[in-house]
Design brief:
This protein is of the alpha/beta class. The protein is 35% helix and 23% strand. The longest helix is centred in the C-terminal third of the chain and has 23 residues. Bound molecules: zinc ion.
Amino acid sequence: MLVPGALKEAATAQVTVQALRRNISVLLGAGGNIAVLTGPDGKLLLDAEIVTARPKVFAALASINADPVKQLINTHWHFDHTGGNEWLHQAGASILAQENTRNHLSKETRVEGWKHTFPAAPASAFPSTVFKEDHTLHANGSTLILKHYSPAHTDSDISVHFVEADILHVADTFWNGYYPFIDYSTGGSIDRMIQATQANLARVTDTMIVIPGHGAIGGKSQLAFYRDLLVGTREKVAALKKQGKSLDEIVAAKPTAATDAKWGNGFRSPKDFIGDVFQGV
Ligand SMILES: [Zn+2]
């Protein structure tokens, strides 16, 4: 799916609320998953969905409680995670992100994989606080540890660990049940996605809840399946490319046939995903 289709879909797609653990819930809609931490400091959100999802996100947040959103953290710069930055900032939220999120939002940025050029966002959508590698904050009785991935899906991705609840949001390094998008235009690559997934697996415990950027809430076994999918597809596509096969020939060989029916219906079709892998091997 390309950007105009996603904007259209998000305007009508349901946004559902799922309680996870302690005072943390997740909003699941057409764009990136939003984690919500509630308490006396007001709501803290991880990510802000697609801009057109605003009425649905607003209603979902109101269904949790009447508290205002005071803080927003962007897990990376993409439009399906930062689309609500402007309205949430205007509603009183401060915005925190890795510095490359602000860099990309502050100027025109082309994403070849989506055949789309994003204009600079309005200044009120920019993160007001940025960091480079690590950042720790405390809100609503929770400790949040933020860590920058070396470039993975983009150059701006971060993970967020809610320490006491033992919930890990891994941004768009993990798509649970959908082929991932890999944004080569802003620093992503298949090998970096695999490295990030290995790093996620090294951290995850049997009891940890993992919030993917897209798809259902998961844990260690779903992450391991996804790692095998990325590694296996990379191996198959690299071998065929080495034999001199073109992208069209590799797509026709269906290297992802076993998962296409389940995983190929999101942002990336099997053909898109194979193309994203082909580009990096
Ligand atoms: Zn993304």
